Amino acid sequence: MACPRRPDRHPDGASQQGERCLMRHYVKIKSRFTMLGTVTSGAAIVLGGQLQQISWGVVYVGSAACLVLAVVVLMSRVPEIRGADAVDEQDGAEEEHGDATAWRAMLRVATPALVTLVVVSGLMHATLTPYIIFTQKTLSDQGAGTALVSVVISAGFFAGGLTPLLSDRANRRIGYRVIVPVSLLTLAAALGLSGLGLVWVTIAAFLALVGIPEITAVIVDNVFNEAVPSRHRASLLSMIAFVESVLIGIGYLVLGALMDGLGSSVGMATYAAVPLLACLLWLPVLFRGARVTTEIEKPADQKAS
Questions:
Q1: Which of 32, 179, 193, 289 makes the best surface tag, with the fewest CB within 10 Å?
Q2: Residue 208 — φ and ψ, nearest 5°?
Q3: How far apart (Å, rounded) are the C-alpha atoms in residues 45 and 222?
């Protein structure tokens, strides 16, 4: 996966070469980052539970030490944190001063397929995140003990961190156009099976299906990175993340209201309408082959040719 390290006297050339390398291997890097972060978080939860028996002060001190260590590593090992690549963004801003706002850039790249992908991705996250959280209540209402619930959620947590390692293979063999509806249908199936009210069916569905949308999330992030011009990538990706966060918040409210009004099992099954709606929104992109990206920005090596 390593990129060639060629000497380049011009800092812009080195920055562009590094960016192209990152884009080529984004899915691999993102999947490993997701795996490492999730597994580390799971291990921290387990360790924190053991340390809490000694003292909450030990837990707080350990958390603070991890935060300080992370900041030190970022400042010492990540050049972008120190502004090393700022010159590339400044040059782009000077050359395109008349079109330097993020809103104008968004309008330039916002193809109907890209807008649909943003909405569909947001609905997928708005299904997955509340599903993981409210599965704990569903299992409890279906008769699972506290110990069993904690084991199942922890296992699902680790599964959600390990399955993204398959993202690169899924991206090459299947592609985002197919993996998106597959993930939405698996979420709908998991919610529907949870509605049967059978605790072991709910557990099996949760453990078997919870990791598939995590694969899709990595692949979709890669599509967003390729679709958005580098000069405005941070601003536009922040807008996309905001849309997803809003939909996740609404998802919590809707699923919570459904579970309170209809019961945990029936509420889960009813909420399966959300991923099914997202799947319907994606069908035109799937069958018409609409382009998500535009030809606004080409790599430097293609421009030279």
A1: 289
A2: -80, -30
A3: 29
In sequence order, the 6+-apart residues with CB closer than 8 A to the CB of 155 are: 207
The structural domains of the chain, ordered by start, are 93-293 (1.20.1250.20)
Query: What CA–CA distance (Å, rounded) separates 53 from 237?
Result: 41
Phi-psi map region of 244: left, alpha, beta (phi>0 left; psi -120 to 50 alpha): alpha
- Please count the helices (runs of H) and the strands (runs of E) in the chain: 15, 0
Higher per-residue confidence, 185 vs 235: 185
Residues 6+ apart with CB under 8 A from 2: none
Type and span of the H or E element at 47: helix 26-52
Nearest-angstrom CA–CA distance, 124 and 210 = 12
Length of the chain, please? 305
Tens digits of residue pLDDT in 252-281: 999 999 999 999 999 999 999 999 999 999
Contacts of 181 (CB under 8 A, 6+ apart): 279, 282, 283, 286
**Amino acid identity, residue 43?**
A
DSSP 8-state secondary structure symbol assigned to residue 33: H
